[in-house]
Write a structure and sequence with these properties.
Blueprint lengths: L5 H12 L21 H8 L3 H9 L7 H10 L4 H14 L16 H9 L5 E4 L5 E4 L1 H6 L13 H7 L3 H4 L3 H18 L4 H13 L1 H9 L7 E8 L3 E11 L5 E7 L4 H16 L8
Antiparallel strand pairs: 1-2, 1-5, 3-4, 4-5
Helix pairs in contact: 1-5, 2-3, 2-4, 4-5, 10-12, 11-12
């Protein structure tokens, strides 16, 4: 189960990440039984009473004001993304954010399918905000071995990363990709904790992957816009691709993979992807 008190969980995780020396406090004498800062230390740094801060962590206080959140963000040394995340959690705790809409349908407009076809041989796919693969061109299925053999409703890029046996060998920096994947889901859960499909995905990954469960516990957050990824493909050997993300309405996004270098070597990689796609096209070119 996801935490019934996401704000408190986030505060506790970030408190555990800091050591007294990180915030200018003496470590003290003897063994510290608390991982990271003690509650009273953080409360003092944020200008709060220990009683009030304890209620925040335990989910018994759901209406922290802006000054309180600013003090906590400064005391916890949050970056800009983490600070925004803190405010999102506080808004949900106080129910200042309306319940999310009904899940969007999986229908894909013909124009989007035409776009995925037009960018070939560059691998491209249409994803939901949670990473479900709604459509992909044949080169994208070649790039991620085994993805096309999953049923359409099971195709999800974070699920593939953690649960498909081909993923660990495919991603040269699997550890980094896995940490980013878990962090992105953390960010999404904070933005829409009532999304039952998202909650079910998180619970499935926690049960099926110890690596995901450990990263979930660390409570990292991240929004991904673009990236450079190195793959060790079973048929293409090691290739480096740049990911470009085109964001659409409803949280959908088109992810386009292109060669890191626009030279003859990059062109050969794309042509080889096209050749493999022609030889092993899935049951439907964009399903």
């Amino acid at each position: 189960m996801t935490s019934p008190h996401p704000l408190g969980e986030f505060l506790q995780a970030r408190r555990a990440r800091l050591q007294p020396g990180d915030v200018g406090l003496p470590a003290g004498i003897g063994l510290r039984r608390t991982q990271g800062l003690r509650r009273e230390e953080l409360a003092a740094l944020a200008g709060l009473s220990i009683q009030y801060y304890t209620r925040l962590e335990q989910g018994r206080e759901n209406n922290p004001g802006g000054a309180v959140l600013d003090g906590l963000a400064a005391a916890l040394r949050l970056n800009e993304e983490e600070r925004a995340h803190l405010y999102v959690l506080a808004n949900h705790a106080d129910e200042r954010v309306p319940a999310g809409d009904e899940p969007a349908d999986r229908e894909v407009r013909p124009g989007i399918l035409a776009l995925l076809e037009r960018v070939r041989p560059w691998p491209a796919c249409l994803l939901t905000r949670t990473g479900d693969v709604l459509a992909a061109n044949p080169e994208a299925f070649v790039l991620f071995p085994g993805l096309a053999r999953w049923s359409p409703e099971r195709r999800n890029m974070v699920r593939y990363l953690f649960l498909h046996p081909a993923a660990r060998a495919l991603f040269v920096d699997w550890e980094g990709a896995a940490s980013r994947g878990a962090a992105q889901l953390r960010t999404l859960v904070a933005a829409d904790p009532r999304d039952r499909g998202l909650t079910a995905l998180v619970e499935e990954l926690k049960a099926g992957s110890r690596e995901f469960a450990a990263r979930w516990q660390r409570y990292e957050i991240q929004r991904r816009d673009g990236d450079r990824q190195v793959y060790r493909h079973p048929q293409l050997n090691e290739i480096t691709l740049v990911l470009e993300v085109l964001r659409m309405e409803g949280g959908r996004r088109i992810v386009l993979h292109q060669p890191a270098e626009q030279d003859e070597a990059g062109r050969r990689i794309m042509l080889e992807l096209a050749r493999l796609a022609a030889a092993d096209t899935p049951s439907g070119p964009f399903e």
